Amino acid sequence: MGNAVSVIGLGAMGAALARAQLSAGHRTFVWNRSKPKVETLVAEGAVAAQTGAAAAKAADVVLVCVDTNTTAEAALEDVWRDGALAGRVVVQLGTTTPAEARSFAAKVRAAGGKALDGAIMCYPDRVGPENSAPVMVGGDVEGFEVARPFLKQISGNLIDLGDNIAAAAALDLGLLATSISLYAGVAHAARLCEAEGADITLLAKLCQHGPRAPERFEIIAKDAFALNSLYDGGSLAVWADVAEHVKDQAQSAGINSGLPEFLSDFYRRAVDAGHGTEDVAALVKILRG
Q: What is the pTM of this model?
């Protein structure tokens, strides 16, 4: 099974991971709760697994990319019961908190496998060996070397974080924490300028820092909130989930969670107001009242 890999979860990122493996000539097993997504990949050359457990048993390297850690653990429920992961490397590539990374890794190791936790720092359409965006991976050192040929198909910028299974989640959440705070700041700054009749597009030109802040200003200035209508990016609902992860990590680590609690509530209010499918810049609509 040295040239085989399994991909569990075929959302936008999971499907991109599977296609990258297929492009590299790897025998690729796939599983997803929604069968049409499996059928699409099978038509492209993948092999369907009937269950998540079957996918985990089909290859020595297993890439897990689902929406939550709870979903990931549920997908492999039968494997946890029969301890069938001996000789396998399981790489958790969904968004997790450090505590969740440790929990998932403990289950993998108890079932006889080697555990890695990773963070992919790009959108699905950039996945591939020519991608320069970082992919950070930590955990079992021997497992990393086994998984390396498959991980290199995700990005040419593979960062080995050593044996710290929680490092990728911590770094990922650290970057995401700056992002969710900045997007809230953009909305506030835009509303401030609106109230005073100042030019938001000029503010965008003046702003040279932060993750894509100028684009969010322009979206607000042009009321172009439909997702990807002006610039690509994550939906407000996706960023609301990010805020929840950052809040959970602060509480888990016992650090002051006042700011992430506020931000999580702020983002969730925007989702509850019906803006979840719009660009994250739609946060300004909550401030507009």
A: 0.74
